[in-house]
């Protein structure tokens, strides 16, 4: 096995061919599947000459290989083209919407980890007894239920019936001005602007979508934690640790959990990739102005450039999430290094 | 010391209990699946009302004796629509999974057994393809090629293929150096025969377990596509579609239109997950112990 530095370098370099593959696939998918975007720009009464001119201006008159090179060249300059629904450059659209998705993702994933791991531990240390069955039942439904349905049920309970939380109208109630943008995270910006009442409003808005996201990400995390920890607790070193008279707490948390964390880390990487790529359906239910909603609008209106930009963003995020997991692995698990 | 003995006894006891528990999950999973198949079949010959006719109720009728699950905004009976919906969600998942299992396993076995350049090319392709979020890919393609059952099935199977491919490849790769594979080769079997007749049947367990999980995923994606209005067309009583149509009702207190299709999905996907877990437990000797 090569030394750690070389392995990390090799893993880092592997990102480029994958990224190139993703970008190529997106290009051809967009060209093949979306047909001719000229129709979207041309007025219905346009003459053939006008259509030809539009086509030329969109760069669609060139032969495909030339188009592909132009496209790559533009991408290298972070130029994803212009979205015809918003009329702005796709790159700035994505950049504007990123904080909303990231904020929801961080809170949701945080809830998922905060509940998932302890529940998994609870189930593992009480294996085959009622806490285990309870956790397994809950996590099973967390995985088996469509996220959008969970969101609707939460809205129905906490907004429609109980009136505890506000309705699904986005990041702040309608008519409330955003605080000056510093980080883009409303939960941070409102505090920086010195407006705790606004912070409270933002927190109430994010509560339901974040809970939904937390519920569906806690489920797989708890399941994997449970099975990894249960396996760790059957191993010889745990028997040794118990025999040496360590307390249960030490055995559970210092030995079992730490050894069981590897698969959990992998899973969290995957879940994070999903979440930060924009929970498409969830954002559309809660009118959350993030990337997922943007992508959905782009799909519905065949907004070719916007969609292409989003797909590239989402898949590169995936690639990076798995890169991060792999690198983290090399540090957590000494066996990989040897 | 006594503690160690005690834990040992405990874990031995839990081991003894483990096998029946897997059967328990297997029974519930199979039972639920059988229930849905039965409902789907019954819906061909009998439903309480006509599922596609609006106006059998007044619209947004609350659950009652006449309409056990209420009616939707247009007054169509929810129970009838749910029953017919089982055909779509179950049928699509089943068809998509069958295609993905066949194609994915075939390529995976080839790639795993052959190795070398073929394997490298296939695996790189898979890695790039899997960098695309599955649901997004499905949405994109269905939007482009148009709604319809066949399109949804094909897209879902395409999304599923890489997972089967990876699984089959890993199984074959691990097993091709085992002694029984060596023995099969030495008695003069051709490579394809060793791979498909000797190695593949020994890998059926994990593949079947994953098939069940994958069917659950496919049903969820079908419902998601339906929810977005990208799946099967507007008036088709597919469960995701029905949830979307009940969305307005949720805001005004008519929760049942969206609620019951969600429960229907929970039963189906939950059953499939249970079945998958049980199959994984029962077919993997290490997990069975």
What does this structure look like?
Chain A is mainly alpha-helical and 338 residues long. Chain A has helices at 4-34, 38-41, 48-57, 64-76, 90-125, 130-144, 147-161, 186-192, 196-233, 236-243, 248-276, 280-285, 291-300, 304-332, 334-337. The longest helix of chain A has 38 residues, at 196-233. Chain A starts with a helix and ends with a helix. By secondary structure, chain B is mainly α. Chains A and B meet through helix 1, helix 6, helix 7, helix 10 and helix 12 of A and helix 1, helix 3, helix 4, helix 8 and helix 10 of B.
Characteristic terms for this protein:
heterodimer, A: 338 residues, mainly alpha, 15 helices, B: 289 residues, 12 helices, disordered N terminus
Main sheet makeup of chain A: none
Integer-rounded radius of gyration of chain A: 24 Å
Q: Helix count of chain A, per DSSP? A: 15
Strand content of chain B: under 5%
- Judged by helices, strands and strand pairing, the structural class of chain A is mainly alpha
Estimated helix fraction of chain A: over 70%
Would you summarize the structure shown here?
Chain A is an all-alpha fold and 338 residues long.
Chain-wise SSE layout:
The complex is a heterodimer of chains A (338) and B (289).
Chain A: H1 4-34, H2 38-41, H3 48-57, H4 64-76, H5 90-125, H6 130-144, H7 147-161, H8 186-192, H9 196-233, H10 236-243, H11 248-276, H12 280-285, H13 291-300, H14 304-332, H15 334-337
Helix pairs in contact in A: 1-14, 5-6, 5-9, 5-11, 5-14, 6-9, 7-9, 8-9, 9-11, 10-11, 11-14, 13-14
Chain B: H1 2-45, H2 78-114, H3 116-130, H4 134-145, H5 149-175, H6 179-186, H7 191-199, H8 204-227, H9 239-245, H10 247-252, H11 256-283, H12 285-288
Helix pairs in contact in B: 1-2, 1-11, 2-3, 2-5, 2-8, 2-11, 4-5, 5-8, 6-7, 8-9, 8-11, 9-11
């Amino acid at each position: 096995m090569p030394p750690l530095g070389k392995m990390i370098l090799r893993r880092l370099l592997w990102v480029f061919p994958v990224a190139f593959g993703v970008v190529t696939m997106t290009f051809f998918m967009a060209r093949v599947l979306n047909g001719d975007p000229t129709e979207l720009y041309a007025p219905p009464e346009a003459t053939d000459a006008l259509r030809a001119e539009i086509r030329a201006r969109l760069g669609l008159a060139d032969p495909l290989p030339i188009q592909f090179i132009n496209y790559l060249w533009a991408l290298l300059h972070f130029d994803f083209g212009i979205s015809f629904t918003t009329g702005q450059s796709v790159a700035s659209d994505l950049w504007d919407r990123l904080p909303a998705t990231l904020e929801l993702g961080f809170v949701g994933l945080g809830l998922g980890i905060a509940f998932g791991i302890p529940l998994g531990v609870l189930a593992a240390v009480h294996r085959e007894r009622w806490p285990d069955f309870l956790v397994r039942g809950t996590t099973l439904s967390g995985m088996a239920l469509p996220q959008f349905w969970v969101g609707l049920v939460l809205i129905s309970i906490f907004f429609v019936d109980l009136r505890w939380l506000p309705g699904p109208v986005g990041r702040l109630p309608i008519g409330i001005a955003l605080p000056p943008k510093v980080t883009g995270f409303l939960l941070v910006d409102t505090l920086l602007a010195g407006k705790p009442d606004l912070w409270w409003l933002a927190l109430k808005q994010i509560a339901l979508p974040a809970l939904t996201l937390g519920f569906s990400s806690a489920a797989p995390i708890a399941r994997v934690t449970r099975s990894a920890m249960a396996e760790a607790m059957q191993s010889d070193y745990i028997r040794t640790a118990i025999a040496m008279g360590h307390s249960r707490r030490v055995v559970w948390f210092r030995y079992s959990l730490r050894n069981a964390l590897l698969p959990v880390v992998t899973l969290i990487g995957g879940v994070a990739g999903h979440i930060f790529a924009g929970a498409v359906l969830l954002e559309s239910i809660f009118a959350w102005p993030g990337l997922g909603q943007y992508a959905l609008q782009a799909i519905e209106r065949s907004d070719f450039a916007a969609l292409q930009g989003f797909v590239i963003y989402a898949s590169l995020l995936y690639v990076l999430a798995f890169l991060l997991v792999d690198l983290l692995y090399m540090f957590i698990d000494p066996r990989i290094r040897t | 010391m006594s503690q160690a003995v005690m834990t040992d006894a405990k874990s031995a006891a839990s081991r003894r209990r483990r096998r029946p528990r897997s059967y328990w999950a297997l029974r519930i999973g199979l039972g639920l699946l059988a229930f849905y198949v039965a409902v789907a079949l019954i819906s061909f010959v009998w439903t309480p009302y006509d599922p596609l006719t609006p106006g059998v109720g007044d619209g947004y009728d609350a659950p009652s004796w006449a309409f056990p699950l209420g009616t939707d905004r247009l007054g169509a009976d929810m129970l009838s629509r749910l029953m017919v919906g089982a055909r779509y969600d179950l049928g699509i998942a089943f068809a998509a999974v069958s295609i993905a299992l066949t194609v994915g396993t075939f390529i995976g076995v080839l790639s795993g057994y052959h190795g070398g350049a073929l394997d490298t090319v296939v695996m790189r392709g898979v890695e790039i393809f899997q960098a695309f979020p599955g649901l997004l890919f499905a949405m994109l393609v269905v939007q482009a090629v148009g709604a319809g059952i066949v399109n949804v099935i094909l897209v879902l199977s395409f999304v599923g293929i890489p997972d089967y491919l990876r699984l089959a490849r890993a199984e074959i790769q691990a097993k091709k150096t085992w002694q029984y594979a060596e023995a099969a080769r030495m008695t003069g079997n051709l490579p394809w025969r060793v791979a498909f007749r000797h190695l593949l049947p020994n890998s059926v367990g994990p593949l079947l377990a994953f098939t069940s999980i994958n069917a659950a995923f496919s049903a969820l994606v079908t419902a998601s596509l339906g929810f977005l209005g990208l799946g099967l067309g507007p008036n088709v009583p597919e469960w995701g579609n029905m949830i979307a149509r009940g969305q307005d009702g949720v805001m005004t207190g008519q929760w049942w239109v969206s609620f019951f299709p969600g429960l229907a999905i929970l039963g189906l996907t939950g059953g499939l997950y249970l079945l998958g877990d049980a199959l994984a437990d029962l077919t993997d000797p290490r997990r069975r112990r």
